Amino acid sequence: MNVFLNDRYELRSGWKLAAYASVFLALWVATGAALSMIHERAGLPQSELTVIALNEIALFVPAILALLLITRFVDRRPPEAFGVGFLPHWRRHLALGLFVASGMLAVLVAGCYAFGFVSIQWTGGQLPVLTLAG
To answer: Which of 28, 10, 30 is nearest to 67 (CA)?
Structure first.
């Protein structure tokens, strides 16, 4: 009995998860190092907005690449099997998701007004237009 393979000669699900996690972590480190070098050479401003954007890129890129690599070489399934891609009725699902998200935001703001303190201010003037556009 092989602990790595099941009866159909493919990796067991726990090993697939371990493969995804290890590929994700390796890509995360590589992406972080590359973004650090790009950040230093490009001379981007040292602001919270820059840190948030770089952090999102550093997590988004490895997640997508690890998913594509593992689904292609380990799982041998298309990414659509995991819900990634333009599936049937994707426009309706996107519209429903945006509607639910806006409803949740409205409930949150209404709850803050009803039970707490709310301070909404425009802070767009604190940064250059190119930084906000990026």
So the answer is: 28
